[in-house]
Amino acid sequence: MALPGLLVEYLVSGAIAFAWLFPLLQSALPRIDAALLPVAFLLLYVLGMAVDYLAWALTRVPKRWIRAWVSRRYGGDGTSERQSGTLRQAKIALYAPDLAKELAMRSSRDRIARGSVVNAILATVFLLPWQFGVPLVAFAMLLWAGFERLSYGYELCAEQVVDEKLQRDAAKKAA
User: Fold this and answer.
1) What is the 3-state secondary structure (H, E, C) of the chain?
2) What is the pTM of this model?
3) Half-sphere exposure of 20 (CA within 13 A, CB side)
4) Does the pLDDT value for residue 80 go beyond 70?
């Protein structure tokens, strides 16, 4: 993912985290001078990175389950996730840059959705009544899982398209 994408993703996750943190910190925060706004953006970025890391750790196991299910659904044996996702994405980027751009946009959406899971959990713990927070967490998890399923299905299809193109090209060279 290019730097601008990560910048936006982390700023979005950080800004959402700040939205639930603000009521807790409101009395402790002084008014921010306009000259300190770049520092505020840096803090939002770092907060977003922390949220993303927590989200990555929290969703690691369910992500494997989702990917194994998607792999079986697309005709695999459920083990394609064991192959390097980075290698798969590099192959797609090398041979199908347009597909790789779409894959990067989907990955960005997934990262923001995964951050919303952690933000929903933390907001529920620190701010929201459980009657509102628990359904919010469930909704965030379902949203993330749906996006993860769609993105991984797209990644597997993109890899298949690239593999077929490489086979056709090899057959043309051999002929």
Assistant:
1) CCHHHHHHHHHHHHHHHHHHHHHHHCCCCCCCCHHHHHHHHHHHHHHHHHHHHHHHHHHHHHHHHHHHHHHHHCCCCCCHHHCCHHHHHHHHHHHCHHHHHHHHHHHHHHHHHHHHHHHHHHHHHHCCCHHHHHHHHHHHHHHHHHHHHHHHHHHHHHHHHHHHHHHHHHHHHHC
2) 0.83
3) 22
4) no
Residues 25-55 have pLDDT tens digits of 777 666 767 777 788 889 899 999 999 999 9
Please identify which residue in the block is written with the tokens 């597909």: 99
Query: What ranges do the domains of the chain cover?
Result: 3-174
* Residue among 68, 94, 74 at smallest CA distance from 157: 74
